[in-house]
Amino acid sequence: MGGLEIGVIAVSLALDAFSVAVAFGMCRKVCLLGERLRLAFSFGLFQFFMPLLGFFAGIRVSAVVDSFDHWLILAILGFLGTKMIWESFTRDNDADFPNLSRGLPLILASLATSLDALAVGFSFALFARKIFFPAFIIGLTASTMTYLGISLGHRLRRSIITKPEIIGGVALWLVGIRVFLTNL
Q1: Tens of pLDDT along the chain (184 residues)?
Q2: Distance in angstroms (rounded) separating the CA atoms of residues 80 and 85
Q3: Residue 158: left (phi > 0), alpha (psi -120 to 50), or beta?
Q4: Structural contact between residues 13 and 142, judged by C-beta atoms closer than 8 angstroms
Q5: What is the sign, positive or negative, of the torsion defined by CA atoms of 175, 88, 54, 35?
Q6: Residue 158: DSSP 8-state
Q7: Are 174 and 80 in contact (CB under 8 A)?
Q8: CA R_g for the chain
Q9: How far apart are CA 47 and CA 17, in angstroms?
């Protein structure tokens, strides 16, 4: 897997974190540097470790699914892409937004925004034999986009923004289709 694909996957996975970060920034009257850094670090750390967990779980079963792995990769990335697009239309934009920068809300938000990375890590085990560099790029991208998302959201406070999850969902589909067609 090349750098372009890793970059597309990293940005796609980070769009969930970015969206949450934008919403967090928009809902805070004051966004302290510590809050921004805690959220960015936590989201990035979870996005780094989840592909590793998925990869090592996937290694155990890759020999079994080797003959149809391209179908499985397409299904996983397609499912995740569809989920991201669906959530962009079904999310309640008027719901109260909790303070995600501390404690249990921070951990739960970090986990929720990184579950997709677990499945991507599993799919990496099927077609890529190296995971640490992609996981690092995924984590770094999520951390950076989280910080930028908070800053952007705080600047845009309460204005209408587009749905970045749609872009991420389509990108995951495109990567899945590319892997599928390459392995036919």
Answers
A1: 688 889 999 998 898 888 888 877 877 777 789 999 999 999 999 999 999 999 998 877 766 766 776 787 778 778 877 876 787 777 655 444 567 788 888 888 888 888 888 888 888 887 767 899 999 999 999 999 999 998 888 887 655 555 656 666 676 687 778 778 877 7
A2: 9
A3: left
A4: yes
A5: positive
A6: T
A7: no
A8: 16
A9: 9
Question: What's the one-letter identity of residue 137?
Answer: I
19's tokens: 């969206």
Residue type, 146: T
The Cα 40–Cα 43 span in angstroms is 5
Output the six-digit token pair for 39: 């959220």
| Contact indicator for 17, 113 with CB cutoff of 8 Å | yes
**Orientation of helix 132-156 relative to helix 103-127, angle to 10°:** 140
pTM of the model: 0.74
Residue ranges of the alpha helices (H) in the chain? Answer: 3-27, 33-65, 69-90, 103-127, 132-156, 164-182
Residue with tokens 């991201």: 84
